[in-house]
Structures are given as C-alpha cells and as structure tokens.
C-alpha cells in the first residue's frame, strides 16, 4: 500500500514515500528533499553466508548523471566505477548504520541508494543517509534504529543546517552528524580551523535536529514497519570457550598480548592457536573451525579487561601517553618535497609533486559546484606494511577514505591559486602500520608540503583517540594515540586533525550504539593536547615554516594578468600562437577565462622569455617606442619583423637604412634580430616601423 509522509526540515520539505516503488526489496523508501530524489533500499539474504566471522554489510551510493541532466563524458556513454564522492558517501552511511545491526548477524545485507534527481540546494548524500535509515527500519531486517543525520555549515559565524549550494560555498565548516535517539553515533567534518568549543556546539545543535527527524521516522515505522525476522545466531559454544580459557589461562593470554611489538604478539597468538589445534583435533574436531573466532573473543575480552579494569595498555603506556614519535624531511633527493612521520610501529612517507594548473583533476559527477580539484592527496596501504603478502589491486574504499580525510585536513591551510599558482599532489605511502596511519599521513604531508616550499598558512597534525567502555555510560576510559590492537578491540576511533588555532578535520568511527556528550567533549579536548605536542615538540624542530621558494627540481611558475579580450590573440587561430610560444621556450601555459596566465617551466630564463612574448602580444604598439624583433620575411617593398608569435610589423624599404638601398637584402637577412621604432599608423591605418630612426642606430 502506497503511503506518503512529510516534514519540514531546515526550511525545505522532506517527503518519504513507502510502497510506491521497489516492492520486492525488504525495505524501500523513495526520498524527496526539495527537488532531490533518492531511492533507498535495504535487502538481506534468506540465509547466513557460510564460513565467515563478520557481518557482510554492503553500502552503495549510485550517482547517475541523468540526475543533473548530463551525459557521461568520454567514449563510453555510461556510468563506470563509482566516483570518489560516491565511495566516500557510502562510507559515511556505513559507519553509523553498521553498529546497530546484531553483532552475530551473518546474512548478507545491501543498502543501495540510487540518486535519481538532484537539487543542488538539497544534498543527495544527506537524503541517501536518511533513506538508508528509514528503509532498513521499515524492513524485516534486524536493526536497532532509526538514526538520523544532519549537515551543519558555519556562515558569517552562524550555524546553518543542511546548507544550500551558495551557503556551502561560503561556509567555514562542513560537518555531518548522525545520531540515535539518545547519542551521537558518527561525526565527519572539514573545517577552517574551528575552535573545539565551537565544534562541540555544532555537533549538539545537529544532534537536537536529529532527534526531531527520528520522531518523524518513528511514526513511519509504527505505521508501516514489518516485524523483524529471526536469524541464525553465531555464538561460541560455552564448553569450547571455558576449556580454552582454563587451558591457556587469562594470565597466559595477557602475557601473549602485553607487548608493544606487533610481530611478537602475532607469534605468541600463533603459538596459542597451534596448542589449541593440537588439543582438540582428536577429541573435538568440530571445534577446530571455531577456534579463530574463539581466540578472537578471548583476546578481545583480555585486552578490554586489561585496559578498563587494570588500567594497563598492551604496550605499557599510560592512557594519555603518545608512542615514540619522529619526523624527517628531504628523504628523497630529487622529488619536489618529501616528509616522513613515524609513530611507534606506524610510519608514513609523503611525497609532494608540483605541477601547472592544467594538471588539476577534472571531476565528472553530480555536484555542479566542484568540477576541478587543485589539491590531490592519495594514500596507499601496501600489504608489506603489516607484514602480509597479497597482490596490489589498486586503492580500495579504505584507501580512498583515508586519502580524502587527509586532503580535507590540509585544504584549509593551502595557499590560494593567486598566492601559489600550482597544482599540488601529495602521495602518502604507508611503510609500516600499527594504527593511525591516516593521521600519520596528515603529519607527513605537512612536513612534505613545507619541504617543497608550498606556503601553507599553518602546520597541521592529526591524532586518534580510542575508547573502551564498561557496563554503564560513565564506565569508560579514553586512550590517546591508539595502536592497531586497541582500535581492533576497542569501541572508538576518533580522528581529529588541526592547527594551533583549531580543527580542520574530524572522522569518528565507533562500534557501539553511540557516545555521550561527556565522552565526545573529552575526546576532542584530548586530541587538542596531543596535537599541540606533536606540532611543537616533534614537527617544528624539523621544519617550522615552509621554505621560501620551491626546490631546484620543481617547476617554476609565474602568473601574469592580461585583458580577457586579448586571450584570443595569445591563443591564436587553432592554437597556433600559443603553441609557437611553447615550442620556442619549452614552458607550459595555462590561461583562465578571467585573463590569468600561468607560465610553468624549469628555469627562470625560459619563463621570462615566454612572459615577455605574451606581454608583447597583448600590448598595443606605441608611437615612439622601441621594440626588438626578428626578420621573418623579406619582400621587394620591405621586411616583416616578428616581435612575438603572431605579432608582426612591416618596415618599409625606405625606413631600413639612412643610405638609399635598392634591395632589402643589402642590409637584412632572414633571422636577423633588429631594433625598430614605432612610427604610428600610416594613412591606411596600419602600424609602421623604422630601423633607421632608432636613436642608437
């Protein structure tokens, strides 16, 4: 049965249509927010997937270019692999949804969001997040929802909820907050150095609006929600777990994991697995397939008890203590810039490459406001960084997400195109990993950018804090600088990057059903303390400010302004003029519609030569002014002089020499460089020149 529900949300109408389309999905909602339309569906397999020990959730966000009236570019007129924005949106939807499914649920679940129509003032990403929540809630899939999400901007010092396209352009903050009825469950933010207290205020302003949306969703679920289906529960047999604990002993497991060396810990756990396999292979062979999950549970319970009850971290640190840190620059002698940041067993090398503005990334997506990307951050996580072996298949969603987070953290401090007319690419190579590689890549990238001479406005550092919770909201411990084991078995990975002044990026992942305000506030302020320590005590002693100029192997770029009406003169017919300049000087030239000309070359001499040519082309000849050019054509009546590609003038034979000559060749030959003085326009309106009237001749 078709039903429609509506509410006013941040000045626009949110409408949820149930039963109109996609009737065979477990749950489906056709979402309208303004003129944005997204179909959100939730489907689950009838049976659990065999042979896995995790919840197989897949979240998809599909951008169709017909939604904004575009035909895909290139030869294949069909959407291909997901865009970076689609991948990041899928991750943002996944993070708050995943913790609310049963932990032992093994049925495949797909949350699919198909963007059908886009109103640029009504975010399709937000609409999809809301759609995934309500589609899952009304389905028969077990889920402890609903959740709601709100975007917050900061325009002229005021919070704006679900900002319009124009407001997003001016906003100092791009914050997304997802909540359950009582708690915040996901935070994603990019910000222009926003103070911590202002960020916390924004988070809870969004949380309050989320509560209103959840009340609206509750009515829909009560009216048309399906009963949740039963499912096969996956639990470790009590006999197995009890025998394993008695055999290994809690002290034995604690001794195995209580080390700051990841390889030692893995060797200890391998030995435990071998002992248990030998113990059960004859009497209880049915337990062998369950050993991995049983050991995981025993290890998790041990680590959490050690941290929460015994106040001991696996590597012996205090709760607020950061691992050993080091920073280096100029690791690579001929790259444009390089920086390496090491935190315990996490090590990241970032390499900076500078290029002409023509090398910016062009985007083909449904966001009409962003068509090019000048700063690109890429993150690579090879298998050797964790001591494993597997073939490289290109970046996965995790790599895309970590790269985007670092990019978001650094964009607020980058110089403008006018200040630094370069395209900038940083690539973070994870050389060793034991937690917080994304934050390590932010620190390494800051070092690399300053090493390359990019005049960033402030240094940026990132840090991650973790959480282990007990039986109540006030039973918890916050851990600064979590390593892999604490992330794996803990409840939270709260990443915050920023400068001395404030926050530039946040990403919060949790495995529980939300965080209290007290935990969020303490986590944010804890990251500030750690961030300032990293900036002042670790990074600044290595390089405290950007180098005053780019390095010897970097391209040099000079930007000049010309009259936009003269752009055609510089380009020439079919690009003939600009190509001639490039061929003669070896530079790259980019021209924008407003007349900004960027000239990129490896040496100043070639850049200056090209700039002089362009200035000559766009400058009108002045009577009495002396110019220098080259003889490119000789006729009976005179010689044609080229001052720059596409800009020529005639010297009549009578104006070549103070002596009378019969033939131009008596004085000039092709290729001669000569000085001429402009005589102004002749009777026919043509500009004429003279060699003999140049004063120093």
TrEMBL record:
GO terms for molecular function: 3'-5'-RNA exonuclease activity; magnesium ion binding; polyribonucleotide nucleotidyltransferase activity; RNA binding. InterPro entries: ExoRNase_PH_dom1, ExoRNase_PH_dom2, ExoRNase_PH_dom2_sf, KH_dom, KH_dom_type_1, KH_dom_type_1_sf, NA-bd_OB-fold, PNPase. GO terms for cellular component: cytosol. It comes from the Bacteria. Mg(2+) binds at residues 487, 493. Keywords: Cytoplasm, Magnesium, Metal-binding, Nucleotidyltransferase, RNA-binding, Transferase. Its cofactor is Mg(2+). Its EC number is 2.7.7.8. Its main location: cytoplasm. Residues 624-692 form the S1 motif domain. The keyword Transport does not apply. Pfam families: KH_1 (PF00013), PNPase (PF03726), RNase_PH (PF01138), RNase_PH_C (PF03725), S1 (PF00575). It is found in: Cytoplasm. Involved in mRNA degradation. Catalyzes the phosphorolysis of single-stranded polyribonucleotides processively in the 3'- to 5'-direction. PANTHER family: POLYRIBONUCLEOTIDE NUCLEOTIDYLTRANSFERASE (PTHR11252), POLYRIBONUCLEOTIDE NUCLEOTIDYLTRANSFERASE 1, MITOCHONDRIAL (PTHR11252:SF0). Belongs to the polyribonucleotide nucleotidyltransferase family. This is Polyribonucleotide nucleotidyltransferase. It comes from Herbinix luporum.
């Amino acid at each position: 049965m078709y039903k429609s529900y509506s509410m006013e949300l941040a000045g626009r109408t949110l409408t949820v249509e149930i039963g109109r389309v996609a009737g065979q999905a477990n749950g489906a909602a056709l979402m309208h927010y303004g003129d944005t339309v997204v179909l959100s569906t939730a489907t689950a397999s009838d049976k659990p997937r065999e042979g896995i020990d995790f919840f197989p959730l897949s979240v998809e966000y599909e951008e169709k270019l017909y939604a904004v009236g575009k035909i895909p570019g290139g030869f294949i007129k069909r959407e291909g692999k997901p865009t970076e924005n689609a991948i990041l949106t899928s991750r943002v939807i996944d993070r708050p949804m995943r913790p609310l499914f049963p932990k032992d649920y093994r049925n495949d679940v797909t949350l699919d969001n198909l963007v059908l129509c886009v109103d640029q003032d009504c975010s399709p990403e937000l609409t999809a997040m809301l759609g995934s929540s309500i589609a899952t809630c009304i389905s028969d899939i077990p889920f402890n929802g609903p959740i709601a999400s709100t975007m917050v901007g900061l325009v002229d010092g005021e919070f704006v909820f679900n900002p319009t396209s124009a407001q997003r352009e001016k906003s100092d903050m791009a914050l997304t907050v997802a909540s359950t009825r009582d708690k915040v469950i996901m935070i994603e933010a990019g910000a222009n150095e926003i103070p911590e207290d202002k960020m916390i205020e924004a988070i809870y302003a969004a949380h309050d609006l989320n509560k209103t949306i959840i009340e609206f969703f509750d009515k829909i679920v009560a009216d048309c929600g399906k009963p949740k289906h039963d499912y096969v529960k996956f639990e470790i047999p009590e006999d197995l777990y009890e025998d394993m604990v008695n055999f290994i002993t809690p002290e034995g497991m604690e001794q195995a994991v209580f080390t700051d060396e990841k390889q030692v810990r893995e060797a200890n756990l391998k030995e435990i697995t071998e002992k248990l396999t030998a113990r059960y292979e004859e009497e209880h062979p049915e337990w062998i397939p369950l050993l991995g999950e049983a050991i995981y549970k025993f290890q998790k319970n041990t680590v959490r008890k050690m941290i929460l009850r015994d106040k001991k971290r696996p590597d012996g640190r205090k709760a607020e203590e950061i691992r050993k840190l080091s920073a280096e620059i100029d690791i690579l002698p001929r790259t444009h810039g390089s920086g390496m940041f090491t935190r315990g067993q996490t090590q990241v090398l970032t390499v900076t490459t500078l290029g002409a503005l023509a090398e910016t990334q062009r985007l083909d997506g449904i966001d009409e406001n962003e068509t090019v990307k000048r700063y690109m951050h890429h993150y690579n996580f090879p298998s050797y960084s964790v001591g494993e072996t597997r073939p490289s298949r290109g970046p996965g969603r995790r790599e895309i997400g970590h790269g985007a987070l670092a990019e978001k953290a650094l964009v607020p401090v980058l110089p403008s195109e006018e200040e630094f007319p370069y395209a900038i690419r940083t690539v973070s190579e994870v050389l060793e990993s034991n937690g917080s590689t994304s934050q390590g890549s932010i620190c390494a990238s800051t070092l690399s950018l300053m090493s390359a001479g990019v005049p960033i406005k402030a240094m940026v550092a990132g840090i991650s804090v973790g959480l282990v919770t007990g039986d109540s909201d006030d039973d918890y411990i916050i851990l600064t600088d979590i390593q892999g084991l604490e992330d794996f078995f803990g409840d939270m990975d709260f990443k915050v990057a920023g400068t001395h002044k404030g926050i530039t990026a946040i990403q919060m992942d949790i495995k529980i059903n939300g965080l209290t305000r007290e935990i969020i506030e303490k986590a944010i302020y804890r990251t500030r303390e750690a961030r300032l320590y990293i900036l002042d005590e670790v990074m600044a002693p290595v390089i405290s400010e950007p180098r005053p100029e780019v390095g010897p192997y970097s391209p040099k770029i000079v930007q000049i302004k010309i009259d936009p009406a003269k752009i055609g003169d510089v380009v020439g017919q079919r690009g003939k003029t600009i190509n001639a300049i490039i061929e003669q000087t070896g530079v790259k030239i980019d021209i924008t519609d407003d007349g900004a000309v960027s000239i990129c070359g490896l040496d100043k001499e070639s850049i200056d030569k090209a700039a002089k040519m362009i200035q000559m082309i766009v400058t009108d000849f002045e009577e009495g002014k002396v110019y220098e050019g080259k003889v490119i054509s000789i006729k009976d009546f005179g010689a044609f002089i080229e001052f720059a590609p596409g800009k020529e003038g005639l010297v009549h034979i009578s104006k070549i020499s103070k002596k009378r000559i019969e033939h131009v060749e008596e004085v000039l030959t092709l290729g001669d460089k000569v000085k001429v003085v402009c005589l102004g326009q002749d009777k026919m309106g043509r500009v004429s020149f003279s060699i003999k009237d140049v004063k120093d001749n």
